[in-house]
Amino acid sequence: LRRADGSYIINGNWAINWSGEYDAAGARFTYRRQDASGGEYIAAKGPLLEPVDIMVIYQQPNPGIKYEYMLPLGESPFGSLGSMGGPSSPVPRPAGPGVYGGGNSGIKPPIASSLYPPSDDIAPKDGPIYDGLDSRSSVLASDAQVRSGGGYQSLMPSGDDSKPLAPRSRGRKRKFIWKLSGFSECSKSCGGGVQTATVHCVREHNHTPVPERRCTPHDRPSPQTVRCNIKPCPAEWVAGDWGPCSVSCGSGGMQTRDVWCQQEISSTLRMRVAEGACLSPPSSLPRSRPCPNPPLSCHARRWVTGEWGPCSTQCGKGLRSRAVRCVGPDGAEAAPGAAQCPMDEKPLQEDVCDMGPCTPNTWFFTEWSQ
């Protein structure tokens, strides 16, 4: 059970909670773990003050999920719908954060069809959650009342620092207003994306667009976002990094890598799933390949170096040296008269070392004589 902000209420981050009661989203959830008498059980009397996600993780064939919920008959959580009354029908004010739409369009809630008779005005459509805003006539205002014929509707805050516009004075006619013109494209095609409400400055009497400098910047609503495309993404094949070449020299070496089936459940959860959930691995993700950079020939010679020795002095600048050898593929030093390593590639055998400045008036001594 997860909140809309991504924080978990029950069984999150691969941690299993015990059976009991958990307070969240303005309600108390009763949770019962799976036992010999039945499966897992989550229930809450509500009402919920914020959206929650119920996520199911299974490691075997799903035996089935049963869910049910109730809504008051006298109101719709999605605002005023075209098939539910005339233009003057009031729009319920939400009890907590959320985005509500109005006007003559909306989303048909997934409840019994007897409560909502079929109508083209409320046909389900793809888009953001609670996307019931009519981009042709919805104007940002502070009241939650649908005006007759205008389809005006409030855009309620979706964050603590968001606030609706201040109410307009009845005795003062404003020339320019901020108007909702729709939503941006969803940031993701699946797995939970976001859409941002777009507002423009328009003339109040005919809603024609004007430069934004005509509207009062202080009255511009805070950025509003809604979730969209929350369905999990289809499972797909994912490949790991290529391993080392199977041979150290010569040809015929191969590299391998791991390829697994993965599904993106949400923006914060990606799971490795059974390979049967993915289609056959595409040819663009092979599990093995010939080494792209063939190793050196097994007959080639190369330079190898030892560790640097100590500096020749205890302070100031001195010299340090190391062993440099020409060896064959087997690591043995090249025999006299055999093909030698390229001299222009030979590493340094001696180098300057700096032990720092010497302290004045310091005694130095040599090794003991025989």
From TrEMBL:
The keyword Ion transport does not apply. Keywords: Repeat, Secreted, Signal. Residues 2-72 form the ADAMTS/ADAMTS-like Spacer domain. GO terms for cellular component: extracellular matrix; extracellular region. GO terms for biological process: extracellular matrix organization; proteolysis. It is found in: Secreted. One of its GO terms (molecular function) is metalloendopeptidase activity. It comes from the Eukaryota. InterPro entries: ADAMTS_ADAMTS-like, ADAMTS_spacer1, TSP1_rpt, TSP1_rpt_sf. The keyword Signal applies. Residues 82-170 are annotated as: Disordered. Its main location: secreted. This is ADAMTS/ADAMTS-like Spacer 1 domain-containing protein. The lineage of its organism: Eukaryota, Metazoa, Ecdysozoa, Arthropoda, Hexapoda.
